[in-house]
Amino acid sequence: MAFDRYVAICNPLRYATIMTHRMVLGLSVWAWAIAFLMVGILIGLSVRLSRCRWIILHFFCDNASLFKLSCESVLINNIYGLGYTVVLLGSSIGSVTLTYLRIAMVCLRSKSKTLNSKALQTCATHLAVYAILLVSGFIIVILHRYPSWRPQEGGVRHGTRVLPALNALIYGLQIKEVRQRVMALFHKSKVASMDAK
Predict the structure, then answer these.
(1) Where's the G-protein coupled receptors family 1 profile domain (predicted)?
(2) pLDDT tens track for 65-79
């Protein structure tokens, strides 16, 4: 999405020639192929382990929870998992940062308020959703590394449901009709609270 935003804002007249069906298909195939390869290795490392415990202490079944069910050495799994996380997050954060820095440079050089406004509106939603994804991912990684920091399971479970649900709210507020209805609800509640005083 960051690359798409970059092309749309920095090369708007060339967007159709750069973001062709072939380019979109190529980017999608590469993203899915890398994900399948990395997750396939992760599953392969997990399947080879024997299990001596049967209770998952985490609130959902993820790979790190499966490692903890084994009494064998999981050093290879932990090294791969850490490398996987570093490569995945590093490449993701790096590419998003580079593309958004380029977009920011174009906006700073441009004197067009319309372009800057549209760029901000387009990029703000993507960055908000991306930040929510990163925060959710970091919470899960941190809670696996430091289980003593884990609050009661219900609080974490609800938190991991609420954060992704914000995606719909963020993108929904981009729609003019939805935004107007939300503003009308806030206005009504503000008027009602003033009348109550």
Answers:
(1) 1-171
(2) 777 788 888 888 888
